[in-house]
Amino acid sequence: MTAIMSLHGNTSNFTTGQSWGALRKAWKGYRIAKVQGDASRMREYAGKIRKIQGELGVSVASFPHLGIN
């Protein structure tokens, strides 16, 4: 893979490493929001997590307690 990767026909401006780093940070934000009981932020992070996972081509997480499958 090149430094800038093509994902599903779209050109991403992020490297694979940057995408994995963003995914790690999104999961961290989700866990913090969950501990704080902030459902709106949990939904926000869940959306980001699912988007990045889709772009990376890995299995996409579901969040049934938020109604996101």
Going across the biggest sheet, name each strand in turn: 1-2
The sequence of SSEs as H and E is: EEHH
Mean pLDDT: 87
Helix and strand composition category? mainly alpha
Overall geometry comes to globular
The Rg value, from CA coordinates, equals 13 Å
Number of strands: 2
- List the uncertain runs: 1-7
Distance between the termini: 30 Å
Largest sheet report: 2 strands, antiparallel
Sheet-strand content, in percent, reads 5-15%
Number of helices: 2
- DSSP helix fraction: 55-70%
Structural commentary:
The chain is mainly alpha-helical and 69 residues long. 57% of the residues lie in helices and 6% in strands. It has helices at 16-36, 39-56; strands at 6-7, 10-11. α1 packs antiparallel against α2 (39-56). The longest helix is centred in the middle third of the chain and has 21 residues, at 16-36. The model is unreliable at 1-7 (pLDDT under 50).
Q: What's the short version?
A:
The chain is 57% helix and 6% strand. With 69 residues, it is mainly alpha-helical.
Topology:
Blueprint: E1 6-7, E2 10-11, H1 16-36, H2 39-56
Please describe the structure with a list of short key phrases separated by commas or semicolons.
two-stranded antiparallel sheet; about 70 residues; mainly alpha; disordered N terminus
